Amino acid sequence: MTRKLIIATVLMLSTVMVSCSTKPSDSPKPSDNNTTTVEQNKDDNGSSNADSKKANETTSDTKKVNKLKLSIYSIDDNSLEPNQSGTIEVNENSTLQDKLKELAKAVSEKKFDNLPIEVKSIDTVNGKKVATINLTDSNNKKWVPKFQGSTGGSVTANTLIENFLQSNNKSKGEWIDGVKFLYNNETIEYEHASDLSTVKYAN
């Protein structure tokens, strides 16, 4: 009798164990979870990258700098008339004084062998904006030959006046009305460059 009970118990336990091992799992496979997470991350990254690109494009648009062209003039030795020989670009939003400084640098390099040309000030005289430009050479007289000779002195004077007044440049924007030149902070008193001794106004 005891033997029969033991056999019956073993059979019942075996049946229960087989039933438990074959029961399907309700929980999702790990691989399914991983796939979902990867797809979600992909979507998040894609959206994030698109937003970042759009932000960068907006930033680059706001940083865009508007430029305007200033003319560089040469003077004909015979007619003493100005001819545009080049241009430079300056930031349209720079101050008038900064634009003049960039022009002074270019004129010095292209027309006067890098002799210093200093923008001292812009003053209002009788309602007009007049720039004072100082030609400097620390008293070593490197500017002096530029003021001499009937043709040489006139070419120097006209080159400086035309370049700073930009009279023929219709796209210069806000600009000075007149210009006054000094040599080492003093009035320029050379016969052949006499036009540099007084204030010159745009036509």
TrEMBL record:
Keyword Signal: yes
Endpoints of the signal sequence: 1-20
Composition bias, Low complexity: 21-35
Compositional bias segments (type: Basic and acidic residues): 40-61
Domain of life: Bacteria
Keywords: Signal
Region ranges (Disordered): 20-61
Keyword Lipoprotein: no
Protein's recorded name: Lipoprotein
